[in-house]
Amino acid sequence: MIRPQPSLRRPLAVAAAALAGLATAFAFTAPASATNTSPSPSASPTVTASPSTPTQPAPSCVKAVDAKYTHTFDGPKGEASITLTNGPLCAGEQQELALVSYVTPSARFAVPQYVLDKSIKKFVGVADGELGVATLDFRVEVPNCYTQVDFLFGSTVIDPLTDTSDRYGDRKVGSSSGIGARSTGPRGWYNGGSGSCSAAPEVIAESDCEGSVELTLVNRTGNAAATFSITGSGGFTETVTVPVRKIETRKLNPGQAQEITVTAVGMKDFTGGWQKPEDCQQPAVGAPDADYESTCDAMTFRISNPEDGATVTSTFTPSKGEAKTLTVEPGRTGSVSFPASKGLTVTVTGDLDSGGPLAWEQPKDCAEGGAGGGEPGEGLPVTGAAAGGIAAGALALLAAGAVLFVVARRRRIRFTA
């Protein structure tokens, strides 16, 4: 009897099933991988901690009194810089500094000195976490003559420097003590240069319509202060010092401005005075009212001057007798009279002009033989009974004469300037 050969299919199937079971058991018992991005609901997720980065501390700040600096300084070039080394300054704090150049009378320290140029800057405090300016740079013009250049803590600049003025002292950057010692570096001051400094003075005069003169004193292009001496009318004198590249003005009133002299070293003397500008408008002036009248006894001239008028002066020259001059101020009235006589004429000259002789004319109501009816001394006086009759007749005519007196006895003729 022949037996068939045993098959390998069954043992292989059993072995495969066993391996599958082992794999399943291993999956449930092994810990979850940290890189498993899709864990089963029953698996606990694994949290991976990232490495911590240390935070930068906020910048510290200092008060202005505790600040420290380093600086550079070049006096002949007029340049300087300063750096805050332990800053920034705290909020609300500040520190001002200045670089200033002077013109001086000597290469060594001497006075007076006048400022030519200056530069002022400052460090300002910042809020927490902010960055402030660490370095300030300065530059000023230096004159091409004797000079002094100072680098200073603070913004107060002394101008001019004189025998009696303040001094900078330890405010100078780089000083051995005081505030100037807060900065490390070279001495922040310089005296030197060559050649005397000189001013370039000039004067500009301008008159106004009210009679005043304004003087503009200029020292525009010089490298030293200019001193002007002013002399005016009425004993007026003044000395004015104009710093380098500056302008000053002085106004002289009408009483001082008629004759003006200005002198200064480096310019030709200025002489002049008030001159009426061409564009001045003439003020309105009231015209006077003038007339004259002939009465039986006199020839009378009257001038009425308005409040806004100008003073009027005229001369009245009669054909007989002495001339008379009359001056009438604004707002006033004046008059002159001459005794009436036959052939009397008066000529008016001056501010008012009659344009020729004006003749006295006898009014019609004057009695024959009266003072105005003939030459003085003509005729004889009437006496005795005739005189009484004439007197009675005169009484009868008095009432009518009174009415005609005002109307008929005066003759008014006007004349003007």
Automatic annotation (TrEMBL):
Signal sequence extent:
1-34
Ranges of compositional bias, category Basic and acidic residues: 164-173
Which parts of the chain are coiled coil? none
Q: Which domain of life is it from?
A: Bacteria
Residue ranges of the TM segments: 385-408
Q: Which UniProt keywords apply?
A: Membrane, Signal, Transmembrane, Transmembrane helix
Q: Does Transmembrane helix appear among the keywords?
A: yes
Region of interest (Disordered), ranges: 34-59, 164-192
Question: Any idea what this protein is called?
Answer: Cell wall anchor protein
State the species of origin.
Answer: Micromonospora purpureochromogenes
